């Protein structure tokens, strides 16, 4: 399907398989399944800025960051993206390199600790920070350089395989990779705030389902959720095969992993969720709208937003993320 959302590093094109375009000397190859064209060049390795010393004992840091932050001279106009290799120490999962987005406020001396977002993209796809970086650069421009630090992790390993965002014998310990290995790396390497109220898990399409599932299984970790055009449960498109191959035909075990089941058996009174979808996305919209209502009934503070005139596209992702960070700005202490 065609897309027109153009991140800084990714170019979107529509057309048949095998079509090649030359734009600014970068070769682009089109994927029919997603309409996403990806340049041949690799994302450079992330150069992490020095982490400032923690606040001195007795210093009151309870005020929202937006109330205390004063942008210094020389604040960059845009953030930066870099790739990182995250050791799969606990999981052994064979993940591709992640990408990190650092907003302008993270790039100055004595930078403040910032809210943290873990993001997953769709399937097939790759851990591309370009789309969310474009949205957050615009957010930062309106908020004195402040925006969350984002880590876009690989929940697939193989882009042609839906790993289900679970620990399975078939696809590896994906859940452990995301909740243990990725978060251990983030805590040890990124200048991020520590409390769950500052942590958001987000995803698009397949990644949206993954984000929702993690938010529901680990509410002590994630205070906020962004589910952009997400599938309503893992393996939806290949359910008979998933039921047979992963769960050995045990329907109850499969159902126990689904977000609707989790929402039906637990309450989430201090979780904020933004569900977004293209208004013309006839595949995702009905289920996601119903699921947002189920989340509201379970105590989640829900915002449901349809991106006007969009289908299952990066335009829908961009519009959804823009709405979501507008909703979450105050909760994250950024506006």
From TrEMBL:
Transmembrane segments: none annotated. Residues 45-72 are annotated as: Disordered. InterPro entries: AB_hydrolase_fold (IPR029058), Esterase-like (IPR000801), Mycobacterial_A85_antigen (IPR050583). It comes from the Bacteria. It holds the Pfam family Esterase. SUPFAM superfamilies: alpha/beta-Hydrolases (SSF53474). This is Esterase.
């Amino acid at each position: 399907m065609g897309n027109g959302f153009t991140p800084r590093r990714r170019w979107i094109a529509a057309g048949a398989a095998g079509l090649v375009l030359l734009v600014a000397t970068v070769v682009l190859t089109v994927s029919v399944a997603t309409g996403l064209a990806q340049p041949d060049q690799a994302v450079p390795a992330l150069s992490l800025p020095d982490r400032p010393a923690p606040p001195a004992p007795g210093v009151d840091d309870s005020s929202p960051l937006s109330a205390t932050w004063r942008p210094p001279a020389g604040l960059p106009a845009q953030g930066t993206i870099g790739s990182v290799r995250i050791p799969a120490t606990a999981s052994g999962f064979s993940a591709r390199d992640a990408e990190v987005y650092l907003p302008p406020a993270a790039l100055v001396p004595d930078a403040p600790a910032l809210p943290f977002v873990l993001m997953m993209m769709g399937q097939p796809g790759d851990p591309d920070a370009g789309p969310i970086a474009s949205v957050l650069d615009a957010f930062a421009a309106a908020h004195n350089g402040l925006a969350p630090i984002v880590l876009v992790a690989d929940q697939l390993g193989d882009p042609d395989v839906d790993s289900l965002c679970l620990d399975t014998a078939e696809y590896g310990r994906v859940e452990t990779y995301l909740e243990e290995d990725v978060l251990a790396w983030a805590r040890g390497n990124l200048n991020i705030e520590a409390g769950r109220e500052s942590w958001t898990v987000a995803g698009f399409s397949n990644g949206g389902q993954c984000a929702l599932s993690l938010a529901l299984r680990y509410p002590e970790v994630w205070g906020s959720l962004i589910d952009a055009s997400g599938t309503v449960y893992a393996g939806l498109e290949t359910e008979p095969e998933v039921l047979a191959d992963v769960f050995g035909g045990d329907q109850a075990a499969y159902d126990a992993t689904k977000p609707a089941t989790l929402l039906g058996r637990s309450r989430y009174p201090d979780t904020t969720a933004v569900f977004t979808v293209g208004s013309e996305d006839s595949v995702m919209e009905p289920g996601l709208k119903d699921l947002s209502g189920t989340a509201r009934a379970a105590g989640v503070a829900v915002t449901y937003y349809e991106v006007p005139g969009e289908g299952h596209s990066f335009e829908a992702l961009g519009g959804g993320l823009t709405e979501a960070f507008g909703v979450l700005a105050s909760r994250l202490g950024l506006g």
